[in-house]
UniProtKB/TrEMBL annotation:
Function: Specifically methylates guanosine-37 in various tRNAs.
GO cellular component: cytosol
PANTHER family the record matches: TRNA (GUANINE-N(1)-)-METHYLTRANSFERASE
The name this protein goes by in its record: tRNA (guanine-N(1)-)-methyltransferase
Family that this chain belongs to: Belongs to the RNA methyltransferase TrmD family.
E.C. numbers: 2.1.1.228
Record-level Gene Ontology MF annotations: tRNA (guanine(37)-N1)-methyltransferase activity
Keywords recorded for this protein, A-Z: Cytoplasm, Methyltransferase, S-adenosyl-L-methionine, Transferase, tRNA processing
GO BP terms: tRNA N1-guanine methylation
Catalytic activity: guanosine(37) in tRNA + S-adenosyl-L-methionine = N(1)-methylguanosine(37) in tRNA + S-adenosyl-L-homocysteine + H(+)
Organism name: Actinotalea soli
Residues binding S-adenosyl-L-methionine: 115, 140-145
Amino acid sequence: MRIDVVSIFPEYLAPLELSLVGKARRTGLLDLRVHDLRDWAHDRHRTVDDSPLGGGAGMVMRPDVWGEALDDVLGGAQAHPGEVELVVPTPSGLPLDQRTAERLATVPHVVVACGRYEGIDARVAEHYRGRGVAVTELSLGDYVLNGGEVAALVLVEAVARLLPGMVGNPASLVEESHGAAGTLEYPVYTRPPEWRGHEVPEVLLSGHHARIERWRRDQALERTARRRPDLIERLAVEDLDRRDRDI
Ligand code: SAM
């Protein structure tokens, strides 16, 4: 998979050299390229913003600079529907969730356009949609960050770990929070079995796989009902088995 990130702070993306994403880059599983938007500016000051038309506070990122950058980075995207997707992080986008990460992990080429200031001139997204490019405006949550770089870091990590071969034991992806079960994950424990007076639930030391599985399922449902009742409401009846507790 290829991911391009365009930003006025390319250094912000340095952590993508580390850990599993860094390894995926080195092994060629992930072709991640980071670009400085100012490389497409034309004046001496490498300006990428201007004041908002209609007045108001702050500055807006210019469509002409973004247009030149995205034309280059997207390449002939409109000629390859389904092959390329432009992601624009914005607090006014749809919430990024696991389903979106799973879908993006199947797109061969994703381009992330990181906004700053008051955001990117609205015509940029409109223009590429009009040219047949898939454009998704995504929000990390209901709060405002200074720029899209943190959203790009989150997106790359959420998507890259789903690529086949990325996570050593793919089974660890199956039972996770927001996975196929639609619940949060059950609590996890490791050695020692007793730590500072806190004991690991006895069932986990029993070696009885069916009981452990049942306990984990109950814990996941209980935890989800307590912390995220909205997720419980979304569970389909067929997702619940006969022995699931009343929730
Ligand atoms: N004026 C914009 C608004 O009220 O919607 C906020 C602009 S914000 C200061 C600058 C940039 O940070 C945005 O263009 C976007 O790239 C990024 N950003 C801020 N909050 C975000 C969020 N919750 N999710 C994704 N990106 C965000």
